[in-house]
Each structure stands twice: as structure tokens, then as C-alpha cells.
Specification:
221 residues; alpha/beta; 8-stranded parallel barrel; 52% helix; 18% strand; binds SN-glycerol-3-phosphate
């Protein structure tokens, strides 16, 4: 399973990229709004910041409702950074979003169908040719449904029918989500930087480092 970072914050993207575990970036209207910056400018900055990742998702804005409106926005977004192939158009899981997805896929543009909460929605997105599909597991957990189980079911469905769409486990809130979606067959987990930091930590690692440091002071020089 690969890691994408789920943020529009440049400092967090830089930190994750520097660690060397980053395969992509996902953003959404809420994440961009938190940064207080112009959407297109931030996407351009992100694309420059992570030159060799496979994907940077830029979502069409909520005022694009029809497929034509979404495609018009996508056309502007893919012009940013000279039609860079890693720009991925994130589309809502609606009939219009699927229509735009099919159109953009045929044009060779990467797509990410977002706000997926059922297996059937994932199947539709895959059949519309989506490069990625994003089930939001944390938000299902929030309403007492099993988000990881959804990821496992989508992974099994895609395997049985040899569908090439990759699953991005999204709305990932903590390290246990990461372990469980990896075991369930997600291709990618998109996570905030805080979760990447948590993944790297263990109290016994800290304790071990402290003991090594203390013992090292006793060595003969
Ligand atoms: O990747 C989707 C994510 O940004 C939503 O996360 O925590 O708001 O459900 P959350």
C-alpha cells in the first residue's frame, strides 16, 4: 500500500516528501479553505513541491454541478504546470461526476471519484474508468458503520472482476485505520501528516533510543 498525504498545507507536504514515503497528494475544498489561499495557486505550488509523485488530486469546486461544468474546470486545472500528467481531477460521486469521469478518462486524464460510501458507488466509478476511487472510512465509522469493511469489500470486488481502479482509503483518522486498510487491500491510504508521524512512533522505540544513548555515554573512547 502506498501513502498519499491528505492536505493542502505546503509545510506538511514538504515534510512528508522529505521523509521519502510520499506517492501523491490529495486535496478537497475543505482542506483548501483551511489554508486561506487561492485554489489554483495552491495546486500549482503543490505540483512544484512534489515533482516525482504519481498523483496530485485537485477537486472540482462545489459550484460545478453538471458534467460540462466539471469538465470546464478540469480543463483549466490540467493547464496548470503544463498539462503535468500527475494532476488528477477529483470528481464527486454523482451521475454528472461519473459522466465527467468517463470523458476525462478517454482524454487520458487521471481521475479520482470521491465521497464513496458503498460498494455499488465504487463499482460505478470503476466502470466510468476512474483511475482512483476514494471511500471515506472515518465518516462511516462516525455513523457506526464499518469503514474498513467497505474498503475490504471494494478490494474483493475489484479483484474478482479484474478492475484496475485503485482504492484510495480516505478519511483515515489514526494508525489502526492504516494497518487495517492495508490488510484489507487498499492500494493507497491518504493520511494527514500527523498520522504519518504517529505511524513512525512507538514507546519502545523511544525507550530503546534513550537506553542506547545512556549506554553510549559509558563506552570507552
Ligand atoms: O480524504 C478525505 C478527507 O479529507 C476527509 O477526512 O476526516 O474530514 O472525514 P475527514
Amino acid at each position: 500500500m502506498k501513502f498519499f498525504i491528505d492536505t493542502a498545507n505546503l509545510a506538511d507536504i514538504q515534510k512528508a516528501y522529505q521523509v521519502g514515503v510520499l506517492s501523491g497528494v490529495t486535496t478537497n475544498p475543505s482542506l483548501v479553505a483551511k489554508e486561506g489561499v487561492k485554489f489554483e495557486d495552491r495546486i500549482e505550488e503543490i505540483l512544484k513541491e512534489v515533482p516525482d509523485v504519481e498523483s496530485v488530486s485537485a477537486e472540482v469546486t462545489p459550484d460545478a454541478v453538471t458534467a460540462q461544468e466539471m469538465i470546464a474546470q478540469a480543463d483549466e486545472l490540467i493547464k496548470i504546470n503544463n498539462n503535468d500528467k500527475k494532476i488528477t481531477i477529483k470528481l464527486p460521486m454523482t451521475l454528472a461526476g461519473l459522466e465527467a469521469c468517463r470523458y476525462l478518462t478517454k482524454k487520458g486524464v487521471k481521475t479520482n471519484v470521491t465521497l464513496v460510501f458503498t460498494v455499488n458507488q465504487a463499482l460505478l466509478a470503476a466502470r466510468a474508468g476512474a483511475t482512483y476511487v476514494s471511500p471515506f472510512l472515518g465518516r462511516l465509522d462516525d455513523i457506526s458503520e464499518d469503514g474498513v469493511l467497505l474498503v475490504a469489500k471494494i478490494a474483493e470486488l475489484f479483484r474478482v472482476h479484474s478492475l484496475e481502479t485503485q482504492i484510495i482509503a480516505a478519511s483515515v483518522r489514526h494508525p489502526d485505520h492504516v494497518t487495517r486498510v492495508a490488510m484489507a487491500g487498499a492500494h493507497i491510504a491518504t493520511v494527514p501528516f500527523a498520522v504519518i508521524e504517529q505511524l513512525a512512533k512507538h514507546p519502545l522505540t523511544e525507550q530503546g533510543l534513550e537506553k542506547f544513548a545512556a549506554d553510549w555515554k559509558k563506552t570507552v573512547s
